């Protein structure tokens, strides 16, 4: 059926598929992050605060 | 478990920091000079390498790649080592990265004023330097990812994610926008032309702001803000949402630079919508940064580091509010091509980038040299001078830009232009141009104070060796997850199936659509049941992902490639179907092509657009709005982004040759009050005719329908056309040799807006424009 599709529709098709793929990644990782354990989140959040020795 | 001592490589961090301060002052010094040139044309000194058109690219490239570039490399190398508890993987690659980058900057500082340019904003550097940039970027990427591979901290902090996104996306953008074929050692033509080039350029230009000036600096914010405030980031989960939504949305917003132009409407709408969506993640990030200071606001009074960081993040919020606002089509009709855009860009680079850089430098320098900051008071003075400078700069550009936009679009009740003389608009904003110079100079003064303060700090200490003791397992732990495992797991598989069936339902017809809908619902139900039964495993997958840089990087790449593809691929096809009534651009004659390359060399595109928008003001002032097919032979495109002077898309034939001759020699002789520089060297230098053979050969390869011609025939064609122009000038008492560059420039300008009549639209199926490929 795609041979009947006008150029503008092809553009829309590519747009929607690209959006969907991108949105799929977004949803997956954001939902994953929100379900991440509190211990893990606390550990990550405190990573920059570690001190070092200077000489 | 055994104890291991890590000694960080801070030598390269110190080098990048010093380089950033030095190049920052150079960039802003050039900025103040070119701002002064716009107000006082005599400051162009009638000297080719000092004119605005050649120095403006030097200013932008120095600010972006030299100042901010060196700053982000310093921040990334310093923070990454601490966050992954590992020394940079290779001292050699670190040094190669530093010296290679400085060599590139020096190359740019020499070539740009000499007029060696590709004619595309923020992508002006010539092809040999482009190759060097790619090679050094690869060195940076290897050094960075190698360090991740040998790290001693399993989990990847959010700052590292922003760095990963920066490295892969900048590589993708830079390579795509710099695809070109050389015509000589110092010149090339991009493989994209016309609308394709415009779109690729602004996909790159917009995302250079996103992924070179924003994401790495956000990573720096997520590391140095908690460090300086001595408390963790306000919400780590919010930072995750901030990262993914920014990466997901930003890459789509490029077309907002081409609103109201000949760009296909759907792309304009796409760019506008995604720009508006950017409001949410940008402000989420800003609030996350500012709220990190909760309970520590009192420190803002005394700590210059926090002052700069808090103000920097606030400017991030301001400019990311203003950006989407300007991407609304009706607002853009006023703001585009005006000083408003310049003000917006500077609220980002001065307010966000420079203040974040200053905060980071004031925090880093005492620690890197194991001493105390020379003067907190001087840093405070820097802050307030810089703040007043930025505000003066931005406010003057707002007033100037909005004035320009309103005056240029103003129409009287009887349907004519309220301000038909462009110079009336130019001269009405002069006071604002003077205020801009003052604002820029104040900011530069602040930078010089910082350089002095840091210099005295460095002198009072000596390079420090930073170490950390860590506990490592006897047997090195494996990477959390393989690349395949990163994708073959329930969350990703279910998401993919849901997307697939959604597309099938939406785009297919009949039975296929119905079956897709059933499968969509069924998959959603199965996914929910699966999540309820084994949700813990799903969580494990994500926690492992946070420890696995390779699948993480591939997912990020997937998100940005998807957004990029959509903008690039459809426009590859758009020229093949321009419509039955589309006027076709005339192919440039060899002399006109030579004139066009001189136009690009002089950076005329920095002040003149060649795209009449479909707005009443534009059409009344410049003529019919521009069509896609009127720039199909423009490699590179020259639509421009700023109108310090008027649009010249249809200037051909508007004025006689003598007018152009006198105007380029002294613009004020024909246009009283003009701020354009004089171009006296064009009347002495000889047009490079021998170079045309290889240029035409490359363009023919792109599909421009040039007839086969020998170098002698090309020369002869140039001489004949030039003699026509010199003969016309002679009638007005002007004698000049036909081989001078001004003649080629006049030939080019007189051709602008000329096109072949559209073919008869008898057969809608018949091709109306040559396919680029078929013209080979």
Beta-strand fraction estimate of chain B? under 5%
What's the name of the CATH homologous superfamily of the domain at 584-756 in chain B?
Cytochrome c-like domain
What structural class is derived from the secondary structure elements of chain B? mainly alpha
Mean pLDDT of chain A: 72
Question: N-to-C terminal Cα separation of chain B, in Å?
Answer: 66 Å
Helix percent band of chain A: 55-70%
Average pLDDT of chain B, rounded to a whole number, is 91
Low-confidence parts of chain B lasting 5 or more residues at pLDDT below 50? 762-776
Number of helices of chain B: 27
Strand order of the largest sheet of chain B: 1-4
Query: In the CATH hierarchy, what is the class of the domain at 584-756 in chain B?
Result: Mainly Alpha
- Rg for CA atoms of chain B: 28 Å
Describe this structure as you would to a colleague.
- The complex is a heterodimer of chains A (55) and B (776).
- Helices cover 65% and strands 4% of the residues of chain A.
- The radius of gyration of chain A is 22 Å and the shape is elongated.
- Chain A has 55 residues and is mainly alpha-helical.
- The model of chain A is unreliable at 1-7 (pLDDT under 50).
- With 776 residues, chain B is mostly helical.
- Among the domains of chain B are: 483-574, no CATH class; 584-756, Cytochrome Bc1 Complex, Chain D, domain 2.
- Chain B is built from 27 helices and 6 strands.
- Chain B has helices at residues 11-39, 52-84, 91-111, 127-149, 158-177, 194-211, 215-229, 236-250, 265-277, 279-291, 304-326, 329-335, 339-368, 376-409, 422-428, 430-460, 483-487, 490-507, 510-545, 549-574, 590-601, 616-622, 657-665, 667-670, 692-702, 711-730, 741-751; strands at residues 2-7, 180-182, 188-190, 466-472, 584-585, 755-756.
- In chain B, the strands form 3 sheets. Chain B has a two-stranded antiparallel sheet with strand order 1-4. In chain B, strands 2-3 form a two-stranded antiparallel ribbon.
- Chain B is globular.
- The termini of chain B are far apart.
- Residues 762-776 of chain B have low confidence and may be disordered.
- The interface between A and B is large, with 45 and 67 residues.
